[in-house]
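Our example pasted here:


***
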Amino acid sequence: MVEDTPRTPQAATLKPNAIGFVDALAIGLNATSPAYSLAAVIGPIVALVGVHAPGVMLASFVPMVLIASAFYYLNRADPDCGTTFSWVTRALGPTAGWLAGWAITMTGVLVVGSLADAAVNFGLLALGQDGLAGDTLVRQVLTVLVVVAMAALCVRGTQAAARLQNVLVLLQTVCLFVFAGVALYRVYAGTAPPDAVRPAADWLDPFAAGGTALTGGLLLGVIVYWGWESAVNLTEETKDHSSAPGRAGIWSTVVLLATYVSAAFAVVAFAGTGYLAAHADDEEAVFASLAREALGGWDWIVLLAVATSALASTQTTIIPASRTALSMARRHALPGHFGLIHPRYRTPAVSTWWVAGTATVWYLLIHRISENALADSLTALSLLIAFYYALTGIACAVHHRRRLTASPREFLLIGASPLVGAGMLVWLLVEAVADMTDQANSSGGAAWFGMGPPLVISLGMSLVGVLLMLARRAASGTFWNERPTTAPAAAPIPHVPDAPALLPVPSTVGE
């Protein structure tokens, strides 16, 4: 067996101290694409749970913040840009780590093209170019150009990317809250559409829907929170890298909770459940129509929010996938050229362009099949997200298992909480797989190989990953010689006051 030597020089590292906590927070927020995510899922969630959509947003936050806690503690133990790949490898072994890394890179491949397409579509609508927005060829050409531009900016440098993200997160947040404020004002003033309904406190009860409806709603809720960990993927490029990226990840989920719950209240109250359910598969109709209804000639504000949201997320979604590939190459889990770093900008140039190129090919290929196939590929995304988030939670408890008896606080924060979050995601994953075996649960109701297309896509991605892993292991077995490690036992540690109150943060876990 011939070993390949890493082609990345030992001194070639990512640029340290390139960004600060605020930059990491902005990147974590933008990676979730708040405005676009809300536009994409509010209709389907309302179709499932009715007025309890805000409650589903609240319930979906629980596993996210618990997994964010796991990211924080694991980042302190191992501040590696490969995050979940590196941590799962440490705690659970190389095979589980490789599959986790593959899942992360494939989430980028599945969604980057769709995000760029949304940025183009809503951008054209905001400019009043509805005709161009409806032209498939124009949209596809512009989408490819957007992906190339965002990838180039990622290669150009983390600092330049962070500056753009700061502007975009402020712009979309202001626009979104303007819409929410006007919509709620009109509801209470009696000038909203006839189907409008005044908000009520019981809308926050996610269990009122119950059963399959709640499961489906929670899975969609997981998608809207997904992406905050992009801040942690920049750990090697962030000041105070052992603490700031993890804090940014936790705070991202908290800020998103406030944004989603308040916006969901406004949208459901203004539009009514009937309208949202009727347009569940058309996010353009939901936000474009509601923006015109609520703001009149100022509807471009909401359309601009969604466009900037999708544009920002196009860039930030490339970050975790490319840095995971870089980390995998460093440890010989991928060929060495994926670990090449740009000599001037000190960014993972090869892996960045690989992610962007593969995502573009996927977007163009799946778009040729049908619009429903594009929507189904996004649904398949939720399975991969639940998979690697759950592995992260398990890895946190396993890696720190010698410390779980140090104090009740450590047992709760680095053991029980991550495992509860992982358990919730595993439950959602199992329920989702069961639901997706029924073709009726796909976007167009079509069947691929007797199953729903989302399940076929996710299983296909997983099978390709397993085959590539076996091929890589045959070519270079170095990575598979690694053995799981655990954090040493240590005394309890003091509380750090700059973390969210619901998740007290120790200062030296794993160090």
Notes: The longest strand covers residues 495-496. The first helix runs from residue 21 to 31. The two ends are 36 Å apart (CA to CA). The beta strands are 495-496, 505-506.
